[in-house]
From TrEMBL:
Residues annotated as transmembrane: 12-32, 70-91, 103-125, 154-177, 189-205, 211-233
Chain segments carrying region Disordered: 241-268
Keyword presence, Membrane: yes
GO molecular function, one term: proton motive force dependent protein transmembrane transporter activity
Pfam families reported in the protein's UniProt record: TatC
HAMAP family given in the database record: TatC
InterPro entries from the UniProt entry: TatC
Record protein name field: Sec-independent protein translocase protein TatC
Length: 268
């Protein structure tokens, strides 16, 4: 394909993604009441703990702006499988057969893990909001009004952060299968993996009890160590296959006598 044909193909893929986002954003528009009620759950949990806080819509057009933003976020979230599929269809013709196999496994695993990470991010916000509100003085003359735009931005960023965190191990496996990094190299940074997992969880889910921190950080670290285990198994199988393909000239002395030794025996 020429450069112009590649650009035309890219334009068509982007158009399909845009149409999917718009159509599913319409679904988000009609599901606004249900989504809005779900997003208010952290504040209901805070109210049950005696914490006073109210969401505030500042400005006449803020309600419409929030509804449009939420519809767009819902459309992007629901259309993420379509976007990933179009990305795969665009890059697939340039891949070798084994690379296509790896890419199919990548997309098939990354999509459910991304949604699982987004769900974990929503759960984290439910834990985060009451903790943050607890720092506000709970007195009769103090009333905390929270801009809904700011809260929605916090929610989306947290869900996106967890979604990406859950997908990174799949990227590590893909890089290993493509021969760019070995499993032993990944394993050398196991201390940093544990440290970053706990720091990330402590920042995103600042709950007072240690059980939640340990469980959540262990789950994130477990994904990384699972990716490392898969990479090391793949490296071992790849090394075994390469050893089996060696011919006699490439075999080591451990594998048997060399041709030079055979020639010496003949001269004797």
């Amino acid at each position: 394909m020429s450069l112009g044909e590649h650009l035309t193909e890219l334009r068509n893929r982007l158009m399909i993604c845009a149409i999917a986002v718009v159509l599913l954003a319409v679904v988000g528009w009609f599901a606004f009441d249900w989504v809005f009620a779900a997003l208010q759950r952290p504040f209901r949990l805070a109210a049950a703990q005696g914490l006073k806080a109210d969401l505030n819509f500042q400005g006449v057009g803020t309600g419409l702006n929030v509804k449009l933003q939420m519809s767009a976020y819902v459309g992007l979230l629901l259309s993420s499988p379509v976007i990933m599929l179009q990305t795969w269809l665009f890059v697939m013709p340039g891949l070798h057969r084994n690379e296509r196999k790896y890419a199919i496994g990548f997309f098939g695993t990354a999509i459910p893990l991304f949604f699982l990470g987004c769900a974990a991010g929503y759960w984290a916000v439910n834990q985060l909001v009451p903790v943050l509100l607890s720092f506000t003085p709970q007195q009769d003359q103090v009333e905390q009004l929270i801009k809904y735009d700011d809260y929605l931005s916090l929610l989306v960023k947290t869900m996106l952060a967890f979604g990406i965190a859950f997908v990174i191990p799949v990227v590590m496996v893909l890089l290993n299968f493509m021969g760019l990094v070995r499993g032993r190299t990944m394993l050398k940074g196991w201390r940093w993996i544990i440290f970053i997992s706990f720091v990330f969880t402590a920042v995103m889910v600042p709950t007072p009890e240690p059980i939640t921190l340990i469980v959540m950080a262990s789950a994130i670290a477990g994904l990384f160590f699972g990716a490392i285990a898969i990479a090391m198994i793949h490296d071992r199988r790849k090394g075994t296959a390469e050893d089996e393909e060696l011919d006699d000239d490439q075999a080591s002395s451990i594998d048997g006598p060399s041709r030079l030794d055979d020639a010496d025996e003949d001269r004797r």
